[in-house]
Amino acid sequence: MLSLGAFVLGGYIALSYAPPYLTSLVMGSIPTNEDTLRWEAPDEFSREIDEHIKNCEAARLLRANPDWTESRPHLKVPEEIRHHNLTAGTLAGPDKIVVPPYYFIENGGKSMVCIFYVGSNLSGHPGIIHGGFLATMLDEGLARCAFAAMPNKVGVTAQLNISYRKPTMAGQFLVLIAKTTKVEGRKGWAEGWIEPLEGLDLQGEERIKSRLVEANALFIEPKHAKVSKNAGSVLQ
Description:
- The protein is an alpha+beta fold.
- The protein folds into 2 domains: 1-30; 31-235, Roll (Thiol Ester Dehydrase, Chain A).
- Helices cover 35% and strands 24% of the residues.
- It is built from 10 helices and 7 strands.
- The protein has helices at 2-17, 20-27, 33-36, 44-55, 57-63, 79-82, 86-90, 131-147, 204-209, 232-235; strands at 68-71, 102-106, 111-118, 156-164, 172-184, 187-196, 213-220.
- It has a 7-stranded antiparallel beta sheet, sandwiched between helices.
- Strand 2 and strand 3 (111-118) form a beta hairpin.
- The longest helix is centred in the middle third of the chain and has 17 residues, at 131-147.
- It is globular and about 45 Å long.
């Protein structure tokens, strides 16, 4: 009985004093994929950006394919702590990541497509998107893809290799495409790249030449990932 009482008391304290994000995770109140798609833009410019992404040909084709799942995972981070999250809060907003990116993940984590818009406040040199931001988006994008194929849907980045091909200009729509290349036990490998949304119309070698930055990565599940498997719902 003493051990049971200690367990109950520990659980109460953990939930009472945990950050809102952790509490939401434990209590199961994280928004669903469908909930995240109901986001409403706060101003006219954001609405135009949002409508352009939502109705572009790539998004419409993926949305119509039952093998793909659409969501906006940044909106699964509770508002109370979103400002502490790098891509969902710090880098989001006017002239940055103007609207929450749209993610489309193929069943089993085979591949992933993310469509987003970048503003001028994400620049390194004036008008040119910072390479560190692009690395962050690739790290996050490849992880979301690989995690969906891994046993417990969660992991950490063990290795990330970036190759910059061309300057990425601010004020444009971008597409991040990722593919899971291999999963072995707790390890998952993925590769991907970022290209202009307009580049999707190109074919063959011209399409490859339109890539702005490429990456490959290795992700590893923590040894006790099975215990915290629910964390994966935020990453999908």
